[in-house]
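Much of the work behind modern protein science is quiet bookkeeping, done one molecule at a time. The protein below has been through that process, and both of its lines are reproduced in full.


***
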Amino acid sequence: MLLKLLLRNTFRSRLRSALTVSGVAVAILAFGLLRTVIETWYAGADATSATRLVTRNAISLIFPLPIAYLEKIRSVDNVKTVSYGIWFGGRYIDEKHFFANFAVEPRTYLELYPEFVLPEKQKEAFFRNRKGCIAGRRLAERFGWRIGDSITLQGTIYPGNWDLTLLGIYEGREPTTDERQFFLHWDYPNETLKKLGLPRADQVGFYMIRIEDPDRAAATSEAIDKLFRNSYAETLTETEKAFSLGFIAMGEAILTAIQLVSLVVIIIIMAVVANTMAMSVRERSGEYAVFKTLGFGRFFLGRLILGESLLITGMGGILGILLTFPAADLFADALADYFPAFFVKQETLILDGVAVLAVGLAASVIPIWRTLNVRITDALGRIG
C-alpha cells in the first residue's frame, strides 16, 4: 500500500515531477562532470611511482644543472637508475600546435618509465638514431604522424630548426598514462650547442631517479641534496608525486572554484526539490489530516513524504548518472589535447549517490516537520 501511495503521489502532477526529475538529472550530471575534471587534474600525480625521485635546481626548474652531477647521484645509496633530460620547448608549425616535448637520455628514461609501452623494434631504432624521436599514440593521431615521418621543431629555448624522424609511437600501459608527449635525444641539441659554443651545453633540466626502497625516499633525497649543498647549483630532490603536485598547485584557485561550483549545483537542486515537496505536501495537507484521523501515526506519514522525496531524487539521480558516461566521452573528445585521460571513476559515482541521498533527505525535512506538527482541524480547513 505504501509503495502504491508513493507512486501515485509522485506522479499526481506529472509535469512538475518530470521537470523536477530532469532538474535533478542535470544537476547530478553537472556534479559528476565537475568532479571528474578535478580527479582528472590530479590523475598525473596519482599515476606517479613511489620509486621515482626528481632532482632539479633548488632555485627553480628553469635553472639548469650540470651533467657532471650524474655520477655523483648514481653513487648515492638506494639509487638504482638515473636518467636526465631537458624541457626542449620546440614549436611545431605554430603556437596553436603546442605539445610537451623533452630531450632525454633514451635508454635510462624508458627504463624508468615502463608505462610507456613501445615495440622493441621501434625502441632499438630510437636508441640508435640521435635524430630520432618517439611520440605518444594520441599525439601521433592528432597530427596524423606515421613511423618514418620527418618532423621539424622550431627552437624557442634552443634556437634553430631541429629536423627529426619519428621512429616510435608509444602507448600507455594504464588509462591514466599521458600519450601526448614527445621525446628526442638529449645528445642531439647538446652536441649542436657544443659546436656553436653556447653556454647551455652539458646542462640538464632535471634528473629522474629510481630508488630501490621507497620507504627511504626522504633519506635518499636528503643525501642527494647534501652532495651539492653550497655549490653554485644546489639541488632540490623530491618524490615524483610531490614534483607533480607542485605543478598542480599552480592551478589551485581554479580547482577550488570548480569544487565550489559543484557544491553550489547540489545546493540549488536541493532547494528546487524542497520547493517541489513543499508544494506537494501543501496540496495534500487535507489527505494527511484524514490519515491522522484514521489512526495512521507520525512514522507512517513521515515515511510517505520521505519516500516521495527519495523517489523523485532517485529517478533524477539515476538518469543523471547514466548520462554522465556519454557526456564524459564527448568531453574527452573535445578536450583530448588538455587531459591525458578523462573517464568517470567509481569514486565519482559514489559521490553522485551520496549527493542524491543528501538532497532527498534534506528536501523532505521541512515538509515532514510541517505535516507532523499541523493540527488536524487546521489541515482540513485549509484550501489549496
